[in-house]
Amino acid sequence: MPVPLPIRGRGASWNPPNRFETLHVELEPDDWVDPDEPEPAPPTQLFRDGTKEILSENDSPDLSFTHGINAYRGCSHGCVYCIGPDSPVLHSDLVWRPIGEIHEGDEVVAFDEFPTRGHRYARKGSEAAPTGTRKLRKSTVEAVWWSKKPTLRVITDRSEVITTAEHRWLQAGSFRWSRTEQLSVGRRLRHLEVRPFEPEDREYRSGYIAGVTLGDGTFRYEPGWRGDKPGFPPAYWRVAMKDAGPLHRLVRFGRDEGVELVVRPFDPGPRSQTRMFKVETRALGKLAWLHGIFATEIDSRSYRRGFLAGFFDAEGHNGTSLRISQVDISVLERVARYAKCFGFETKLELRTGGVASSLRLVGTIADRIRFLSIIQPALRRKVDRVFGHMPPTQSERIVAIEKGPARDVVDIQTSTGTFYAAGLATHNCFARPYHEYLGFSAGLDFETKIVVKDQAPALLRKRLSSPRWKPQTLMMSGATDPYQPIERKLRITRGIVEVLAEFRNPVAIITKNNLITRDIDQLVKLAEHDAVACILSITTLRNELQRVMEPRTSIPARRLDAVRRLAAAGVPVGVNVAPVIPGLTDQEMPAILEAAADAGAKFASFVTLRLPYAVKDLFATWLEQHFPDRKEKVLNRLRDLHDGKLYDSTFGHRGRGEGAYAEQIEQVFRIAAKKVGLNKEDERKTLSTAAFRVPGSVEQLGLL
Fold first, then answer.
1. Residue 286, in any domain of the structure
2. Are residues 577 and 606 in the same domain?
3. What is the CATH number of the domain that holds 347?
4. H or E stretch including 561?
5. Total structural domains in the chain?
6. When comparing pLDDT for 29 and 265, which is higher?
7. Secondary structure element (H or E) that encloses residue 341, with its range
8. How far, in Å, CA of 692 to CA of 467, rounded?
9. Which run of H or of E encompasses 666?
């Protein structure tokens, strides 16, 4: 489809198809539109949420809050810098890559969302299958969504993942789906081994060329041969196969070394009906290059990986078991030796009479997946044979769940509804995709069709009045802004705050809007009992930048005004400087902190822009449209943060980078915050539940 025109005041500009609807309607555009003018903004529509539950729960003892409250589903802010994180996701070629690099149409390793009928945890009405359990499936990525939300870090014995409270995970014991907010330390999840990505370096390329040639190739050349002179035998190199995939890899590897090769049709003779292809050369210079590869067996992991991949593409079979066949026993012994270096056990199955013997990989489907993941063969049809087997997952214990700041997160929508993130079996269920369960699109509909819980104050009052309610801090809100534009008219958040003040139940509020000041009279009541904290997110002090990055939010001056008015009223307030864009907003950090401190903020934090591959081009285009004079400077500064790359997914520094420039940003923040008096220990108080009460209840009076 053509690139849609931008829509003034909106982040999304079109509606992708709803995965649950069989019919998708796309209206024809007008006969003529001005390409230089943005589309007019569509109106916001409201829909009533009739559910009876108001709080989302989390039973983890490691979090400072266990309940969140949200009156809105969908958000009309339309922020443009939602960027995905880098939790590794297993692709269908058995390579783990950051989720932020995924594109629509990519294929990932997934599994059945629910067991088939006959399993004790099967969903009612599901179709029958002989095995009655979940199986590995190849799944297509149907959509990719970015958003900014408060995060949780889930740490297990062998993995960790940055996620949100509402994301769902497959438990190991019960095999049931549970949201992050429902998990706790000691519980177990289903885990699949994660292998770090290994590049196709020069030694891997040499090994691959040697392996595939030894399996399905012919090489006739010796140094000094002159194929164009009488007395010398014809000199050539040829690899012929029915699958063109390995041949295209040979072409790519040759190009990496400055050697041009071409895939062409190959005639196998009149007795064969199979269509075949070949890569061939008779050029003496290229043959000399190939001779150097074949004459040298490199003692390295990369070379052995490449050799096994090439030989498996040529002679491997992956059916009921994984086998590699060859008449020459010495070659199979070489393969077995290489496989042993990676911890694999093989068994040689000898045959006589000129029939090819086989080398069988010993072990389970887990060993086959690990073998294919390590060597990375080119033939996908052989890799695809792992699908349909039971997932070789293991029970993984949760050792910690840590509360994190609001970050840019990404979710993918797959055809199965499942995938593996950081090795953990998970389900796609973030805020935008949830809109599809309501019959809407997760694109523009998410910003223009807002589902409101108009009975939220009454539901909250009922929940807090219950004898089973234990007073605790609520977070408002995690997925959408409680003070988004429609709140000015509906006043639902206002009603929630009034109930909280009446019960004196503590709450932490995150927003980008000045509208929070409307409720100062109620927030002051909570502040009198140390029962409230407010955080204003401030990205920039420049109105022109705010308008293109965060449309439909308060301008910077109005956010600072909110900080000032809250602080003046005695309400604890802080700021979050995010995202810091090197070369565009980083120089504003001291000014933002100073302005926030002058306005009365007591604490602050920051997050540096993260730019995974999937949005690299999008962000570069955005810079070209709005800040063409700074485009290269911004991109180069991002490379400074990530060792020459636009992004590095390594845990520990992916949110702030590393190196001299990252240290400079950290130091600027620390010095600037200290200079203006932010983040003092005595200013960061834990919210109190001591004053909680149920209005109208009889209180015991002390004797005079």
1. yes
2. yes
3. 3.10.28.10
4. helix 556-568
5. 3
6. 265
7. helix 329-341
8. 13
9. helix 660-675
Query: Same domain, yes or no, for 165 and 284?
Result: no
Q: Read off the CATH number of the domain in which 626 is found.
A: 3.80.30.30
The CA dihedral of 92, 110, 404, 506, to the nearest 10 degrees, is 160
Q: Does the residue 701 lie in any domain?
A: no
Is there a contact between 672 and 590 (Cβ–Cβ < 8 Å)?
yes
Do residues 342 and 405 both lie within one domain? no
Q: Which of 242, 239, 266 is nearest to 251 (CA)?
A: 239
Structural domain containing residue 380:
202-386
What's 64's domain CATH number? 2.170.16.10
Nearest Cα residue to 163 out of 395, 429, 409, 432: 409
Radius of gyration (C-alpha) of the chain in whole angstroms: 30
Amino acid at 556: P
CA distances from residue 619 to 28, 275, 611 in whole angstroms, order as listed: 29, 44, 8
Q: Are 417 and 142 in contact (CB under 8 A)?
A: no
Which tens digit of pLDDT belongs to each residue from 658-672? Answer: 778 888 898 999 999
Distance of CA 176 to the CA centre of its chain: 22
- The verdict on residue 490 lying in a domain is no
**Owner of token pair 């950290």:** 666
Quote the longest CA-to-CA distance of the chain. 124
Q: What are phi and psi of 426, to 5 degrees?
A: -140, 170
Q: Say yes or no: 14 and 150 in one domain.
A: yes
- DSSP E strands, 516-634: 532-537, 573-580, 603-608
What are the residues whose beta carbons fall under 8 Å from the beta carbon of 204, sequence distance 6 or more?
198, 302, 303, 305, 306, 309
Q: What is the pLDDT of residues 67-113, one digit of tens each?
A: 677 776 555 544 433 223 568 899 999 999 888 888 778 899 999 88
* Residue 183 counted as domain residue: yes
Ordered strands of the 573-580 beta sheet = 55-57, 67-69, 474-476, 507-511, 532-537, 573-580, 603-608
